[in-house]
Each structure stands twice: as C-alpha cells, then as structure tokens.
C-alpha cells in the first residue's frame, strides 16, 4: 500500500496514462483504480472523481512552475516574465500532451458542478501566474486581468497542443502577440478605472459637503456640483 501522501500523485499519473491510451470519456474510476493498484475505497478517500483528479493535476502543475522560478527573473519586465512563466507551464505539461488532447476532445467529461470547479481552478492558476510575474491581481482591475489571461491562455493552449516544433517557438510568438494586445487593453482599463475612482471620490466629497450644510441649518439647498 503506497503512503497516503503519495496516493493523489499516483491517481493523477494513472488517470493521465489512461487518457493517453484511450478517450478520456471512456476512462472510469475503476480503470484508474486498477491502473494505480488501488481499491475504489482508497480512491474515494483521496479524490471525488475524475474531475477532482484533473483539478489536483492543475494544482500540481502550478506548484512545479512556481517552485522552478528563479529570483533573478523578477527583475525582468512584466511582459517578459509572464511569457517565461506561461512557457514554463507548457514545458511542465509537455509530457502529458497525448493525455491532454484526449481530455480536451472529451471537454474534460465534466458535469455542470465539476465544470464550475474547473473554471474556478483555471482562474486560480492564472491568478498565480500573474502574481508570479509581478502583476497586481486584487480588486476589479486585478480580476479583469485574471479573466483576460485565462482567455489568452485557453487560446494559446490549443496553439501549443498542435505545435510540433522542438522549442515551441510558434506558441511563444503567438503568446507574445496576444499579451501585447492585452497590454494595450490593460492600460486603457487602468486609465478608465482611475478616472471612475476620481469621479466617485469627488461625488462623495460633494455629497458630504451638501449633507454637512443641511445638518448645520444653512438655507443653501443647491444640489452638489457633479461637474467638478
């Protein structure tokens, strides 16, 4: 019996091995248990099904990418760091490409609940990739960045799956173009949110002044000037 801490990785390896051999849709938990040399009870104790195994795989890849970061990389421009981080992710996934093609073809074989969890996992991964590249991911702007990178990654991932080059050069070039376009959009969003925040502050200040005048008993009932 493997050590309990090793069982999740054993299940991941068994599931992806089977996915590389046949359609992910046809892979059952019995198949995974047999391939892993475990009982169904052991599987049940460490995962909630195929969807859970895929989410654990995503977290495993996240950890591998983050653990391999070099502190010197943090001195590079954010755009370059983000490209390096995403390409490192593809390098970590390279050995699993046959399995990933099978999983993508079956759309993960996920039900509604697992699909929502999978989306949440991917958003979480992209947040970590942005954090690792030095981008702020908090607040509305950060959430928009995470959403944008998730969409870019999904498109680049499909490009990477069909990239037969030895160095994934076409994938890197595609990613560079997509991120460059996104950078222009990100800058416009930052300016727009900055203007909106400034307007909200002025509106709040004017409303406080107007409220203060009313409470002090002044007869000036002029509405707050929102044009300032």
UniProtKB/TrEMBL annotation:
Keywords: DNA-binding. It comes from Thalassospira profundimaris. This is TetR family transcriptional regulator. Residues 213-222 have a biased composition (Low complexity). Residues 5-65 form the HTH tetR-type domain. Residues 28-47 bind DNA. InterPro entries: COQ9_C (IPR013718), Homeodomain-like_sf (IPR009057), HTH_TetR (IPR001647). Residues 209-228 are annotated as: Disordered. Gene3D superfamilies: Tetracycline Repressor, domain 2. SUPFAM superfamilies: Homeodomain-like (SSF46689). GO terms for molecular function: DNA binding.
